[in-house]
Amino acid sequence: xxxxxxxxxxxxxxxxxxxxxxxxxxxxxxxxxxxxxxxxxxxxxxxxxxxxxxxxxxxxxxxxxxxxxxxxxxxxxxxxxxxxxxxxxxxxxxxxxxxxxxx
Amino acid sequence: xxxxxxxxxxxxxxxxxxxxxxxxxxxxxxxxxxxxxxxxxxxxxxxxxxxxxxxxxxxxxxxxxxxxxxxxxxxxxxxxxxxxxxxxxxxxxxxxxxxxxxxxxxxxxxxxxxxxxxxxxxxxxxxxxxxxxxxxxxxxxxxxxxxxxxxxxxxxxxxxxxxxxxxxxxxxxxxxxxxxxxxxxxxxxxxxxxxxxxxxxxxxxxxxxxxxxxxxxxxxxxxx
Lengths: 103, 224
What we know:
Number of domains of chain B: 2
Order of helices and strands of chain B: HHHHHEEEHHHHHE
Number of helices of chain B: 10
CATH architecture of the largest domain in chain B: Orthogonal Bundle
Largest sheet of chain B: 2 strands, antiparallel
Number of strands of chain A: 0
Helix content of chain A: 55-70%
Low-confidence stretches of chain A: none
Helix content of chain B: 55-70%
Number of strands of chain B: 4
Strand order of the largest sheet of chain B: 1-2
Order of helices and strands of chain A: HHHHH
CATH topology of the largest domain in chain B: Rna Polymerase Sigma Factor, Chain: A
Strand content of chain B: under 5%
Low-confidence stretches of chain B: 1-28
CATH class of the largest domain in chain B: Mainly Alpha
Mean pLDDT of chain A: 82
Oligomer: heterodimer
Structural class of chain A: mainly alpha
Mean pLDDT of chain B: 83
Radius of gyration of chain A: 24 Å
């Protein structure tokens, strides 16, 4: 199935022309790394947020990107929980035996 | 699995080699940990068994995530405990024993990955964001059909997330796992993988972007 593409909004292109300092989607993409690291300088953060206000594609992209991070974390939640049942006893015994083996 | 102990060249896994900035140990259980630590340093067999039984579950889970191979993960955990046993004298207590052992396990798993190059990896570029000639993002119109909670509650869908992560090429998958799942800092990941912090950030972003593309069908459908 081919993904339906949104029409390229002329309004957004016009905004890029007439609002000085408004970053484009490629620049927005470049800023994303530091945005998530929390190291985006204030001026760039303002540009990042301004772009979000006018660009629906980047808004949707950012939302899905955040959701992906959340899903990844959720898939592995409880990793610090109690000992899983599937730790094989022979592994435990092999570790204990290996420790007492010279070499 | 062969019960015979497997000994390989275990590299230095002293505390400083494992993590330059270790997270603080939790306050609760400190006393218990310090008693266990004293016994481990004294070479007490019972304490070592307790240590293995307490921490092998998390270590095995970490190794499985990184190696995608149960047998290799078991070998890696065995090597990690041996390395821990040999280097316990160098453990200064700046992190919890659990964190320290987890870092050793990660290092052992990374050594394994370096020795055994992945057989088949999907190309990443088709999964990365696309832009038109005007540098505008090309993003299909999608609408949400499931929440994170819906997906996680469904074992089959949850399994698809881990399988999605497993599809990523090792150099990206490992960074994603260490940063997002093991919750190491960018600096810690850079130090562990011996790459620059910039490279960590770039790989992480590419890994997340590709994973987004892989996982989108789980919660999005085409339409306004």
